[in-house]
Design goal:
heterodimer, A: 489 residues, mainly alpha, two-stranded antiparallel sheet, 18 helices, 2 strands, B: 462 residues, two-stranded antiparallel ribbon, 21 helices, 1% strand, ubiquinone binding (chain A), NADH_Q_OxRdtase_chainM/4 (chain A), membrane (chain A), NADH-quinone oxidoreductase subunit M (chain A)
Chain lengths: 489, 462
């Protein structure tokens, strides 16, 4: 069988190397390589999807020895959960490359870093070896650090440093957890499938390992109170950086929570489930309230990420707490679909805010007004994405959040208080739309051009997917459900 | 005599190193500095090649006083090539200066001392190794013969004399407790815990000064700053790894009932934290890397604290030593062609992107970011520590890794920042670029390759 997972994984690296080799080529060629490479990656991801996944366990596994002395191998493969995230990643990167085709500031380095980031992201989702996972996990940090520091806004150095220190500090406990699981497994191995099949640790050791992992993934997701790096990083990052950070990299935390914490220390997670649930609920509400307090559009969307990822945490916690397989599958289906939806919706919103910022050089909602008259395409796209973000039925977040809330109601009804978050986000989006796009048109923005072809090409696929997941989520849920329905612990 | 015939073949690499040093000295007398360099480098490479057949051997010579084992063999395979790279750096920096050939010769002799340390199986060899590697090092630091270098060498010398004296004094307690100078007899010390403790404290003092462990590190930043950069690079790698390996040789035989692993772990915490905290406030890049190398020495101690309790310990020491040698020499090589101040690095990554990326990779490797060599080494060290139930120590080491990121970003961040208006825009290049580039290119290949292909090394160690 053709090793499509590895090919997809390393294609961006190949693209990056070819850009490195072509140091004197003009920017347009470099961006062309970026777009072409990411298009091939997307094709690879779709190919993986067309092959499908087995229910229970991983499929399309490719492996060879890497460091046999300590039981580390190069192992990659997908299940329903990781495959849907790989699809999201490939898709968002492709659009990001199209959007970034106008970057003229050091285009070579930009494309190289983005491609490196793409390999790291896909690697994080497909790795089946804990050491390999950690390698990709960390490489993504380095690339993102240089993205923010190199192409961000005014205060980028500080934001980049904060991002890097925070997430490195956050990811090191995971290293301890991985070492703990490694030393606990018999024979010693880094094979994640073995750790999932028979969790190597029990009792206090498992609980300590879980705490270390929760810390890491809480920083990454992010969960209150470990979210403080996020608004700064988002606001200072270039648009492409924000899209990838929110759309893809925040998923590392939620994915790790399912893959590592839930699957490798299930008993400990069950004991600590209520605590995780409380953090999830609080985080979701906190994110919504904090977003309400923002006047900068980008900051506002950044905080709604805290809110949306809070729902994901709630779903995972419910899955850990429940003893009924049906509810567990429902909660996890909702969580994974929420990750994908959040990637699409927040990606669209960050693109739109980036487009607005390119035109107006400000993101303060109070400085706009009546924009719909001047830029109808941009305006209506924003309205659609905002409605999706607040969870309107028929759009991407609704089926995801609905399943999470339904599972919560069945298992832990008190936690349904989290639903208040929807009301708050509805309020804040309506306020933002009202201030920016409706109201008295300001003559200052009369000459603002509407979306150009490049921007339409970036946005249209996102909006189509947002609607199609909202109306008929089953095309994606089917893949996810195959895995979540077979989980047993 | 037959015993001698058995022993000597094992020592051929060491003898070749001595001959290389002596030969370089002869060429220097003939004022043929280039030939001195070639002879020294050729000798060291020959010795490296002659070590390869010894891989897998585990024996001892001279009645157990000198060991031919994993540590001593890998010490040769790491330190000899590292010395060759140091020779090239020294050539790039000191070509045409007075007494150039003596530097090459001294580098060989100091390396010989480090090899003696790494293979010692006897307290007398510890003393011998410390002396052999120190005497040449004083001369190396003082080589430029200016005030700064002389002061640095004096400080270095006084510090060495005191710590060396303490070590010999303490070792007499071990001799008193066991009636023998062999490490293998240290097991008997569990009956005389006081003697064991005094001796251990003394050994940590004596070797700790060589390895620049806190609180015996004070000489290092001053000596590195006063010395030529190539000598600083060398001192931060070769004698340090020799001393660390010597400590590991002691640790393997010292009974754990004396509680020494905890002592080593405490020194590790102190060394790592102190090193990085002090590095945070340095403006001079050489001093910054000096403190960084102090902190890195603390990481080595994780492997030593786990020696005897974890099967990963020796392998982790060797892998980290190889990684450390590559990344530290690489970073110093780039300092040598850029400048000693942080300011010299501003904008360097923009005007010379390849050098800038290389420096970034060395520094990221020092932090321990995967998939670089430093990560492989640190990962195994953490694993060894956890395996030996020193989870808290691994945790402290991890926290220090985060601190270290802040340290190294102090160099990385300005590199990619545009130079201020009115500042010097032309980057000044120092020394022979070709030699320096060769050195950092080799270091770069090792730093990248060892991360991805750690198996090659791990498989060979077993």
């Amino acid at each position: 069988m053709f090793p499509i997972v590895s090919t997809t994984l390393f294609l961006p690296l190949l693209g990056a190397l070819s850009v490195m080799a072509l140091r004197r080529t003009p920017a347009s060629v470099v961006h062309g390589i970026g777009i072409l490479t990411s298009a091939l990656v997307l094709a690879g991801a779709l190919w993986m999807w067309s092959r499908g996944v087995d229910s229970g366990g991983f499929s399309q596994v490719e492996q060879f020895d890497w460091i046999p002395t300590i039981g580390a191998s190069y192992r990659v493969g997908v299940d329903g959960i990781s495959l849907s995230l790989v699809l999201l990643t490939a898709f968002l990167f492709f659009l990001t490359f199209i959007f970034s085709a106008n970057v003229r500031e050091r285009p070579h380095a930009y494309v190289i870093l983005m491609l490196l980031l793409e390999t790291a992201s896909i690697g994080t989702f497909t790795a089946l070896d804990a050491l390999l996972f950690y390698v990709f996990f960390e490489v993504s940090l380095v690339s993102m650090y240089f993205m923010i520091a190199g192409w961000g806004h005014e205060d980028r150095q500080r934001a980049a440093l904060m991002f890097f220190l925070y997430t490195l500090l956050g990811s090191l406990p995971l290293l301890l957890a991985i070492l703990g699981l490694y030393l606990g497994s018999d024979p010693h191995t880094f094979d994640m499938r073995a750790w999932i099949a028979s969790p190597p640790l029990t009792g206090t050791a498992a609980m300590l390992t879980l705490v270390a992992m929760l810390f890491t993934f809480a920083v990454k997701t992010p969960v209150f109170p470990l979210h403080t790096w996020l608004p700064a990083a988002h606001v200072q990052a270039p648009t492409a950086g924000s899209v990838i950070l929110a759309g893809v990299m925040l998923k590392f935390g939620a994915y790790g929570l399912v893959r590592f914490a839930l699957q490798m220390t299930p008993d400990a997670f069950r004991q600590a489930g209520v605590v995780v649930l409380v953090f999830g609920v609080f985080s979701a509400l906190y994110g919504a309230f904090a977003a309400l307090a923002q006047s900068d559009l980008k900051r506002m969307v950044a905080y709604t990420s805290v809110n949306h990822m809070g729902y994901v945490i709630v779903g995972v916690a419910i899955a850990a707490l429940t003893t009924q397989p049906a509810i567990r599958a429902m909660a996890l289906d909702g969580s994974v679909l929420q990750m994908v939806s959040h990637g699409l919706v927040t990606g669209a919103l960050f693109f739109l805010i980036g487009m607005l910022n390119d035109r107006a050089h400000t993101r303060e909602m109070d400085s706009f007004g009546g924009l719909l008259k001047f830029v109808p395409l941009l305006g209506w796209s924003f309205v659609l994405a905002a409605f999706a973000s607040l969870g309107l039925p028929g759009l991407a977040h609704f089926p995801a959040e609905f399943q999470i809330f339904l599972a919560t109601l069945r298992e832990e009804p008190v936690a349904l208080i989290v639903i208040l978050g929807i009301v708050i986000t509805a309020g804040l989006y309506l306020r933002a739309i009202g201030k920016v796009f409706f109201g008295a048109p300001r003559e200052q923005w009369a000459g603002m051009p509407d979306l150009n072809a490049r921007e339409v090409l970036t946005l249209a696929p996102l909006l189509v997917l947002i609607i199609s997941i909202g109306i008929a989520p089953s095309w994606l849920l089917g893949t996810i459900h195959q895995t979540t329905a077979a989980l047993h612990f | 005599m037959t015993q001698m015939a058995h022993d000597l073949p094992y020592l051929i690499p060491e003898m070749v190193v001595l001959i290389a040093g002596a030969g370089a000295l002869v060429f220097e007398m003939l004022r043929l500095s280039r030939a001195a360099l070639a002879f020294a480098a050729g000798g060291l490479l020959l010795a490296t090649g002659l070590t390869l057949p010894l891989l897998g051997v585990d024996t001892e010579v001279f009645g157990g006083t000198f060991r031919i084992d994993t540590l001593s063999i890998w010490a040769k395979l790491i330190l000899l090539p590292a010395t060759v790279l140091s020779l090239l750096l020294a050539r790039a920096e000191l070509a045409g200066s007075d007494r150039e050939g003596t530097v090459y010769s001294l580098l060989c002799f100091v390396t010989f001392g480090a090899l003696v340390l790494a293979g010692s199986g006897d307290t007398m060899f510890l003393v011998l190794g410390v002396l052999l590697s120190s005497l040449g090092a004083f001369a190396l630091v003082a080589h430029p013969r200016n005030d700064a270098a002389t002061e640095a060498a004096m400080k270095f010398f006084v510090f060495a004399s005191v710590t060396g004296g303490v070590m010999i004094f303490g070792l007499s307690y071990w001799f008193g407790g066991t009636g023998s100078t062999l490490f293998t007899d240290l097991v008997h010390l569990d009956k005389t815990p006081l003697a064991a403790t005094i001796g251990l404290a003394a050994v940590i003092t004596g070797l700790g000064y060589k390895a620049s462990l806190a609180p015996f590190h004070f000489w290092a930043p001053d000596a590195y700053e006063g010395a030529p950069i190539s000598v600083a690079a060398y001192l931060s790698v070769v004698p340090k790894i020799g001393a660390i390996f010597a400590l590991a040789q002691v640790a393997r035989d010292l009974p754990t009932t004396t509680g020494w692993p905890f002592v080593v772990a405490s020194v590790a915490v102190l060394t790592m934290s102190w090193g990085y905290l002090a590095a945070l406030v340095q403006e001079n890049v050489v001093r910054l890397l000096a403190y960084s190398s102090i902190a890195q020495a603390g990481y080595f101690l994780l492997g030593i604290a786990a020696a005897g309790a974890s099967s990963l310990a020796l392998a982790s020491l060797v892998v980290f030593a190889a990684a450390y040698a590559a990344m530290n020499l690489g970073a110093f090589a780039i300092i040598q062609c850029t400048g000693r101040t942080l300011d010299a690095f501003t904008g360097m990554g923009r005007t010379r992107p390849v050098t800038g990326i290389a420096m970034t990779i060395f520094l990221m490797s020092l932090v321990g970011i995967p998939p670089l060599a430093g990560f492989s080494g640190k990962f195994l060290l953490f694993g060894a520590a956890i395996d030996a139930h020193f989870t808290w120590l691994a945790f402290v080491a991890i926290l220090n890794s985060v601190l270290s990121l802040a340290v190294y970003l102090r160099i990385i961040v300005p590199m990619f920042r545009p130079r201020d208006e009115g500042g010097e825009t032309v980057v000044q290049l120092h020394g022979h670029m070709l030699l320096i580039r060769t050195v950092w290119l080799i270091a770069l290949i090792v730093s990248l390759g060892l991360g991805l292909a750690a198996q090659l090394l791990l498989g060979a160690i077993d």
